[in-house]
Amino acid sequence: MIKDYSKHYNDLSRLMGELGAEIPATMSGFNSLHKASTAEGALSSKTKELIALGIAITVRCDGCIAFHVHDALKSGASSEEIVETIGVSVLMGGGPALMYGCEALEALNQFVVLENN
Question: Domain of 51?
Answer without folding.
Answer: 5-116
